[in-house]
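Follow-up to my earlier ticket, as requested here are the two runs.
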Amino acid sequence: MKKFIVIIVGLVITVGCKEKNDEPYKGESSGVINNVSVIIDNELWNSPVGDSIRYVLAAEVEGLTHAEPLFNLNQYPTNIFKGFMRNSRNIVIVAEGKEDVFAIEEDRFARPQNVVFVTGSSKEAVIQLFKKNAEAIVKSIQRMEVKERQQRIKKALLNTTKIEKELGVTLSIPTAYAYAMEREKFFWLKKEIPSGNSSVLIYEVPIHKLENDTTAMANVIAVRDSIGKQHIHGTLDNTYMGTEVAYAPYFYQIDFKEKPTYLTKGSWELRNDFMAGPFINYAIKDEKNNRYVVVEGFVYAPSKPKRDLVQELESIILSVEIQ
């Protein structure tokens, strides 16, 4: 009798679970950061269709000192796309078909996952469809990779209470970073890496410093150069960080969490020395407190790839919340 009751209870639980979740079980996605699985038959991959995919997904990253691709592409023919291969975090499926179809789906085969479908009625149709939706495709992959990085960062977080008290700002930064400098309304955090380091700067400036008669980009550069001269010095006398003058930075006006923001990407150099590298700078307008909160990441890693290092810094910056 007891055995019969246990069986009935088990069936009730099983049925209840099925009613609550009709979806089939989906495993965890996997993959190296910034790797994309491109599912496309060899004939298309070795045609202008493949060229158009590489042109978009392997384009150069903005603001780096040396050319690096947006993503590392791994191509697989459609007949082997099964089993564990479907667990890739980012998948782009390209094919010819009867109709022109473009779609981006989340969690199609695993979680979390970003799957892009591009089907065209001809090779030219596939190319045009990919070209038309290039920005959406790239942004969907970038969002997924930032999300993945932020999840990894959250596993071991640095205590940032002092930043919150001083600046009214919270952010998620891994314990691999340490406080290199603390001044009034200014923090410099640094992580040592093989043959170099990654840094995060957090400070505030009055609104009028970035909103005067000069152009916004010139104001941002003037402020970051003054901060570099004041705080970021080399080991030799009269050496300090400034913006590389030989290359114009990439500059955008964006909304960051519903706040007007200046986004600047470019190269820094150590004046009167030979150190240099990429930086990414967010100047976030905080009207309530009559200020801009500036959060910047910069990298020194000579002769090393820098794409992933800069992306980690941007993932940290994107976690910022102004209290």
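Run two:
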Amino acid sequence: MKFLWRIAMVCVFSAGMAWIVPAWATEQALQPGQLLVSGKVLEGRDVCMHCHDENDQKPTMTILKTRHGVKGDKRTPECQGCHGLSDSHIHNAGGGPVRPKPDMTYGPKSEHDATARSEKCLGCHEGGKRMHWAGSQHQGQDVACNSCHNIHAADDKVLDKTVQREVCFKCHKNEQAQVHRLSTHPLDAGKMSCSDCHNPHGSVGPKLLVKNTVNETCFTCHAEKRGPFLWEHPPVAEDCLNCHTPHGSNVTPLLKNRAPFLCRECHSGHGAPYDGSKLPTAAAGGVTLLLHGCANCHSQVHGSNHPSGSYFQR
């Protein structure tokens, strides 16, 4: 009986040491960015979410509802992949009432410039539509990825076609005013987004356009205006913006000015002898332009394939 009692005591003591020793040893062997909680070593996102849970003031756990929270995808980053190991933040180095900030912060009061913040994102999101980010207008204006994107939000507004404009209009106030004019693209209706025409991450074309030129960008939707035509209208072939303003106008369809004033910006000499104020009548041997509308006769202003369409009348 004494022998069995001794064996039992040894087993109990050994079991206790098996629970105590690994906890002590683990605490000494913690790697930067790890946290010991109740004898268990936490790492990765578990370290951050030990404190930043559903009761946190900042909605950080909503990232689990995004692509950045898909655990089954090997490409999914951990919190520390973007914010750094942040060992002093995790263990509250100094023991003060306010923890030191993480190694990398992204909020409005971040001590890191736009370039440093964007580099973290570009470490994974490089190439494709972002290959022209370096040197782009947004990059040159110190716009960072998190200036437009909110990766912790379940629904990132800038990725939603119906509300993307709200993000863009935070900076582009003139364009915001123009889309409320009489004639506009259906931005405000949510039927198209700013990124249908612009690539905010950079482009080889002007104004961050998705294509190399204005016309190529317009033709992605307005293919019927592409041509080629037997009779081409030179300003149309040159640049759609010669006559149209893309974000909004009080003259339909998105015209910069009313006819005949828009037409007379080019046609002020031979072939357009009328100044629009005193139109000749049929009795005087002239042609009456009904309501001063050049397009009433020259209806094929974008170009004509008719053998007799040199004046874009058919």
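The only thing I checked on run two: The beta strands are 35-37, 40-42, 231-232, 303-304. Let me know what else you need.
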